[in-house]
Design a protein that fits this description.
Layout: H1 2-17, H2 22-47, H3 58-78, H4 80-92, H5 95-100, H6 105-110, H7 116-120, H8 123-135, H9 142-167, H10 180-190, H11 200-209, H12 213-223, H13 231-261
Helix pairs in contact: 2-3, 3-8, 3-9, 3-12, 9-12, 9-13, 12-13
Length: 262
């Protein structure tokens, strides 16, 4: 309950701060809608010449892209602003204040600010998923819907943990701006079907090492009945492993940070 109250208080502050930047808020929402429309148009253009891509129909591909966008916007809403602040705090020495607070270090790194424009922008990808799922007449059960929602949450955890892992090098090398390119690469791969990856070795690499495949493909494959239910556990395991690795590397970095500032 303590963490929930803290999260709600931080959310309230973030929402209040939006009033000072209303133009930016509106522009971000417009950008989200434009990106969604452009994605639909570009994919539709390709499917004018082919029936399927790697056994994925147009509607299925749009559900995949919509899910990738949904994971992306959730990450940008809740995690990315705080991750950027985490790196900045290490560079300017303000990370000391985080270490002194009587709450979980990972909580302080992951949560604090909320990008409300990104949060509202989840409406566009959610609409894409719902509209194309209905048009594809998917026989979706309540259990499968709940599994999809849980897997989307797991995808956000995987992406957050992986980005924290690679940004933990900020404890050793202060300037890590270029690492954000890894994030864009992950999201670009996540909106593609895993079947287009040519070899099993590469598929395993983009699942366990560079976790792009699980972010959208696994949640969507569950509701499209392209994979068995046991793969639900695969993503949960990946999320747990990534989170544990992120925690371990962060605490290793904290030791380095403490010795450098003592």
């Amino acid at each position: 309950m303590k963490y929930l109250r803290l999260f709600l208080e931080q959310s309230k502050i973030s929402i209040m701060s939006v009033a000072a930047y209303r133009a930016n808020f509106v522009l971000m929402i417009i950008q989200s809608v434009v990106n969604a429309v452009l994605s639909i148009i570009s994919v539709k253009y390709i499917y004018n010449y082919v029936d399927k891509i790697a056994d994925w129909s147009y509607g299925e591909m749009m559900i995949l892209i919509g899910t990738s966008m949904l994971v992306n916007q959730l990450f940008r809403a809740f995690i990315l602003p705080n991750l950027n602040q985490f790196v900045a705090d290490i560079g300017n020495g303000n990370f000391d204040a985080i270490l002194l607070k009587p709450v979980s270090l990972l909580f302080m790194i992951f949560f604090g600010r909320i990008d409300l424009s990104s949060l509202v922008s989840i409406i566009a990808p959610t609409a894409i998923v719902v509209i194309f799922a209905r048009s594809a007449t998917i026989n979706l059960t309540i259990v499968e819907l709940l599994m999809y929602i849980v897997l989307v949450v797991c995808s956000v955890i995987i992406l957050s943990a992986f980005m924290l892992i690679i940004h933990s090098v900020a404890f050793f090398y202060i300037k890590v701006d270029g690492l954000m390119n890894v994030y864009y690469m992950i999201m670009a791969i996540s909106e593609k079907p895993k079947d287009i990856i040519p070899t099993k070795i590469l598929r395993n690499f983009f699942t366990w090492i560079f976790p792009a495949v699980p972010l959208a493909c696994l949640p969507v494959s569950i509701i499209l009945h392209k994979i068995l239910y046991r793969y639900f556990l695969v993503e949960a395991v990946i999320a747990l492993i990534m989170l544990l690795c992120a925690k371990a590397l962060t605490y290793m970095g904290v030791k380095k940070y403490s010795s450098a500032s003592s």
